[in-house]
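Two proteins follow. First one:
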Amino acid sequence: VVMASFVSPYRSTRDFARKLIGDFVEVYVKCSLETCMRRDPKGLYKRALAGEIKDMTGIQDPYEEPLNPEVIVDSERQGPEECVKRILEALSRLGYLD
């Protein structure tokens, strides 16, 4: 099992990745823009709001929520351990883990 994390705000990009890779499990880590901004250790959102960064996802550029991800975790309501547990349960249910 290979896990990779990508900033992929557009459905078309995620659809392309699914077609390219084939056997693919999409995990949607749901989080509001406000929480993303609060968790931003690099200050990217603050810089985007100040106009220092252009095309920042959620500020000047849209984020298109996935339509049919295999797994959804809500990082605002679930802690890291619960999110990992749900992902592992889904991977097991889908036949990727024993």
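Second one, unrelated to the first:
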Amino acid sequence: MKPRKKVLTDPHAKREAKNYANPVPSREFIIQHLTDVGKPMTLRQITKLFELNDAGEKEGLRRRLKAMERDGQLVCNRRKGYGLAKKMDLVRGRIIAHSDGYGFLVPDEGGDDLFLSEREMRSIMHGDRVLVNIIGLDRKGRKEAALVEVLERNTHEIVGRFFHKRGQNVAFVEPNNRRIIQNILIEKRKQQHQAKDGQIVVVRLLSPPTKYNPPFGEVIEIIGDHLSPGMEIDIAIRSHELPHKWSAEVLAETKKFSRKIPKQLQQEREDMRDIPFVTIDGDDAKDFDDAVYCEPRGKGWLLRVAIADVSAYVEVGSAIDLEAQDRGNSVYFPNRVVPMLPEILSNELCSLKPKVDRLCLVCELAIDFYGRIRRTRFFKAVIRSAARLTYDQVAKVLNNDEKHFSQPKLLPHIENLYCLYQLLLKRRQKRGAIDFDTVETKIVFDKKQKIKQVVPLVRNEAHRLIEEMMLAANVATAEWLTKQELPLLYRIHEGPNEEKLTALRNFLKEQCLQLWGKDKPQANHYAKLLEKSK
């Protein structure tokens, strides 16, 4: 009598049937049977194990195994056998290369970094995702690993210096990034460029390194001489792969913009062009995002903070919108900006320049005599900034140095802003808020774009005034969005945990200082401590 064949029943079959039109064995079921078998199995063997005959089921299983491999649950060996990564003592992670030739693997699942010798690093580049096998300890007692497989190449374009090999048909590029330890060979037939010895170029990698061969590539851009002014910025932009060129689709969309605001965009907006908003920024600011205005109202103040309304020009899902999402933010270098939005928007239509009409979103706050916000209103408006002021100009006015101020009509408005600033600051200090008044530095360049000097960037009362106005507008906006139950990102400064709090108090005790507040000190307790420590 033949033994009855054991029927395999997936305990998660109902869940799979609910989630997929063509359900396949669950991840848990696959892991369970690979554990029982105790050795890697091929796709065909696993298909046979689960008795899958339908083409759709087979394809579903193939995709599931690939997904489990991608997520680090399974490993596919050179014989196409799938095994459990943990059972095979294999580790996935990302490579950090060292300029001396060796490297380390940072495991995806955490834990100690694994050392890779110079020999193992020959076919790997900095940033690659790889699969390794732990082989023991090195001379320094570190866990050492050997390469099993490269899962994902991270390096595609490399910035470096171009050199010809004299008398040979080969040139090479020496990477600017010291963590990329291999020179990139450029074959003669791939030299479709006019790069000269020593120039900085961008190379596209054509083939990665192996144990016996260096990486090969082709020059796709010549940046220029390595001593050219501003070359460091050009190198940084490309080395960090910052998007800095506009696509044809983005450029096509920018052509529809005019430097004058169409009348249809001004409709259904409040006309505030007669209100003397002002922008207050640094001397070298190129774009002006926000403008402020304040006037006495009853027994308190009326504050208006206007920001450029980018949404009036950028449609959701447009090429400009998608490019802005990809960039995420503008990147500021000394004397140069890589903008998130095309210059027609960032430097023109969405920059609140003086004496020109601009579309804005306005936050209007009615603030009482005690600095409490009593009413908040948000609306779309058209404004015309009365002046582009600098922090230094306003600081001199606040210090009663008005001799060289060229806008005397604006003096009462600056005085209003200052009075409100003092009121808001007083209320915030009473609440115990901490003022992190640190000294920043500013790099001054000469005409050749070389560093001339590094000077402290002194914050004055004008800096603090604008910060206080923007803080009030941001808090009011957050409260309004919370009431509307709209998704919102908050910046939260978590307090120290119990261990850190104990260590801090022990240190303070040695300095004859004390932090009040027991187990949960508040901001005012820290503020008092800082005041006593001065």
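SUMMARY FIELD: The first strand starts at residue 41 and ends at 42. The longest helix spans residues 461-483.
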